[in-house]
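Notes from the 1:1 (GR / supervisor)

We went over the backlog. Supervisor wanted to see one worked example end to end before approving the batch request, so GR pasted a single chain during the call. The sequence is below; no edits were made to it. Supervisor asked that the structure be written out right there so they could see what the output format looks like.
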Amino acid sequence: MAAFAPHLWLRWLLVVVSLVVVGTRAAVEKDPNMKSIPLRTHSLSAPYLDTDMHSRWFDFGGDTIIRADQYIRLAPDRQSREGWIFSRVPLTATNWEVEFEFKIHGAGSLHADGFALWVTKERATPGPVFGHADRFEGLGVFFDTYKNNRPGVVFPYVMAMLGDGKTAYDQPNDGKENEVAGCSARGLRGATIPTKARVTYFQEKSLHLELQYKSEDEWTECFTIEHSEAKPIRMPTVAYLGFSAETGELSDNFDLINVESRNLYSPAGYNSGSGAGAKGGDSAAAGGRKGGKGRPTTPKEGGSWTWFFFKVFVFFGLVGGGYVGWTMYRTQKRTRF
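Structure output shown during the call:
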């Protein structure tokens, strides 16, 4: 039998530890000051319904069908159908993130029309815009699967519209006149992997949309909108979270699998450059605001204690590993003689 080589064993140990250190450090430094709180009142997961076959936090209607073990079908693969599901309580978080899994599929070769995410003043109001009322106030993110009149644009197409309560959706041109940002997403419909979207909003700072449809755990940026006077990003004071879908002469299944909503905030004393607000709705720590009184508060290094204990753990792991390796080496040497 070949003699044991402790230097090789230690080399592999160092490689593994180095990979763990790099991965952990990257996770800590991604944004250690950003915190999140799950919003149960605005999240959905199977079985979706309570024991009395109702949802405590959401209302649904139209042609929406809920199959408790699989999905919420906003609209089925039938002509001229529309359905919706909306939260019962307003989304009060100043900064928030909504991540949801969905599935667009159906029979045949032609499909339409699409579905939408809503954060609007209006609630559970059916209409002609992907199953929701027109002239809405707030945010609509549209997943449009059929091209009417947008030359040079590849569909499915995902776009955002910020409604003022007065402006109508430009339906003949697939929302061209209303679009504040968007992207083509070929392969979004009928994908072989779970398709997801993640919308992140910081009050009067930014609106960000990412999509997962190419491969699992690979997020593709669709758009990022920065707040400005020319292009303000504001949500209604009272806004509800909802989803809706619509079919016409052509159809598809529009399924909602799950929804995870989170309140985003930064601990007091930290002024995030990405516009994160403090817990409880403040957009930044008062000391760090422009024009604030007193000296700005120096942000604390997030995750420092976690990193310290991790380094201690790694150190003792190396010492222990070296001792085990040396012991095994001595044992092998004695056995040989």
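Supervisor's comment: The CA atoms of residues 242 and 282 lie 25 Å apart.
Batch request approved.
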